[in-house]
Known about the structure:
Blueprint: E1 12-16, H1 20-31, E2 35-40, H2 43-49, E3 55-58, H3 64-69, E4 77-80, H4 85-97, E5 103-106, H5 110-118, E6 123-125, H6 127-140, E7 144-151, E8 154-160, E9 168-169, H7 170-173, H8 175-179, E10 182-188, E11 191-194, E12 201-202, E13 207-213, H9 214-221
Amino acid sequence: MLGKRKSRHARQFAIIGLGRFGSSLARTLFSMGNEVLAVDYNSERIQEMANLVTHAVQADGTDENAMRSLGIRNADVVVVSIGDLQPSILATLIMKELGVRYIVAKAVSEVHGKVLEKLGADRVVYPERDMGNRVAHNLVSGNLIDYIELAPNYSIVEVVAKAEFANRTLKAIDLRAKYGINIIAVKRGSEIVVVPGADYCIERGDVLVAMGAADKLEQLEEN
């Protein structure tokens, strides 16, 4: 099912498990122009995804022969998005044995995640925990738009610029020197300026995309 790329620019992804996280991920990756193979043992989920991805196949992610026949090892990235512990572990192990280049595995707990890492998952994600972090930050900060945890104490936030930043340059605000915070982009309406220079002037309503230590980023989240 997965073979030579149809486009040299598109990447090939295989998503095993089409729950809420897996389905959303598959649709988004496909909408971004990638080739997506969606796999689930549930026929209803496959029917729902049939026209939303490149290929949607009813198969068991813990069946090594079935995965081999789908050409799963040709994918650039395989995401094991199975919620149940045992099938998740087995599917991850099979992906490793089949020689998949990069394996992303969904975990529902810290223990689950540690097991997946031991089995060779290149990246373990915690969708429920990470979404909880985002919602919590949005609830306590009125000007926070998004929050991504990169490491236990290192994050990226997307936040509306504080009123006191208006009509001042990044050099004048000097967040890097004061807090060790780097502004990696500024959104102004439909315009996005990536890595703005020190002389870039912030306007009221600008959205700052900032990276730094989580406790320092809180300085940007205050109303």
